[in-house]
Amino acid sequence: MKRIMVVDDEQVVREGVKRVLESSGEFLVETCSSGQLALERLLDEDFDLVITDLKMPGMSGMEVIQTLKSVYPDVPVVMITGYANVATAVEAMKYGAANYIPKPFKPQELIDNIRAALQTGRGRGEEASLKRELADCGGFGMFIGTSQEMCKVYRRIKQVAPTDSTVLVTGESGTGKELVARALHANSLRSDKPFVAVDCTSLVESLLESELFGHVKGSFTGAVQTKTGLFKVADGGTLFLDEISSMSLTTQAKLLRVLQQREVTPIGATTPIPVDIRLVAATNRPLRAMVQEGSFREDLLFRLNIIPIDLPPLRSRKGDLGLLVSHFLEKFAEELGKDIRGLAPDAMAELEQHPFPGNVRELENIIQRGVVLAEGNLILRSDLELLEQEHAPADDSQYIPHTVDELKETKRILRDKATEPLEKAFVIQALERNNWNITRAAEETGMQRPNFQTLMKKLNISSRSNFSS
Ligand SMILES: Nc1ncnc2c1ncn2[C@@H]1O[C@H](COP(=O)(O)OP(=O)(O)OP(=O)(O)O)[C@@H](O)[C@H]1O
Ligand SMILES: [Mg+2]
User: Fold this and answer.
1) C-alpha closest to that of 381 among 398, 365, 364
2) Quick one: CATH architecture of 2-121?
């Protein structure tokens, strides 16, 4: 049984929370009316989790969190707060609070939240299993990448997927927001029920509403047939509202009502129908700024943002680039039935420099194009079509390494297959660039002169006359 400490100055809240949590049979709850008292109790006894109100006379919830986190960094803290204090709640998460519960809340919501927060504290064992999983396949489920930033995301997904908490996924375009939504569904208890994705940008306002909530026959011109709304279609499963920022204020108000009451009223209907969905929303626009300018409802943001998952842009986790490139390369090479072994070293170097404003999706498109355009076993820099190819080699159907390191790397990528023509081109190009001065050619490629000469001999290259064009 998990021991929970509840700190709130209002007795009704304390008792309410205690009753709900203890009724689940999973928790043993103790209550305190002030932060001070709670901290004293914590000195005497171990607790698995602390729930605290934010606004209290005396020591504020924020102070409780800061103090707690400095003394017991592993004990998760969950806040209870009214929506007037969202900003503070978000601030508190920076100090290490696990999440917050918006007031008023439903009993199940409370239990789910606490379960999720307890998972956060569990730590070690989970981490080890995640590490193993990452080492096995270079990612988590459909995700590729083992960077710290992505590991944080995977951990979050694992923690919150089994709960019914609403999740808001943020991140630039192409960072994998939809992938997160699907992973949350796949790892939830709802995974055998529908996953329904709605792109809020793709429909005009009136259509979006009838799409989401449904309508009855004849409720408006064009409503020739009764239509089941997607909320109902997703019943029992997960509803993914993509690019929620483009929803009009009126639709936002209706959505808020659905979330609070867990029922929808189809357009033209008089009685609401109950729906049981887990909502995941995504956006690449800053909703907080939109609240400020009045185009997004604060109370809705508050409802949606219960568990935030923010995806890092690709440029801030370049360490994952190699894994992602291999993954997409394999995928498209197989799809197109081509024997592509890798990227030429200079092509890879160029990718490393690329800022990827379109993130993983952009990389996926670049590699796909590369696989389509590649004529040999390597994707050349020119196949990527990243920038204007000022330095493109004259004969751009073949990659020719400039240095011996590049030569080795290319042979490694090609897995030593048919390397003689490659070596020949490498040597001849180096000689051509240096007017057939062997000393300088060797120097430029980073080879010892005798080794360079041995290579020339092995390849039967002796004089310019055989090769010059
Ligand atoms: N970490 C990752 N590993 C493998 N594939 C990924 C990863 N992240 C994204 N992708 C792939 O990149 C593409 C874009 O991902 P997704 O559609 O989830 O992004 P998004 O954030 O929803 O983008 P947008 O804002 O443009 O809708 C998809 O094909 C997805 O499979
Ligand atoms: Mg998307």
Assistant:
1) 398
2) 3-Layer(aba) Sandwich (3.40)
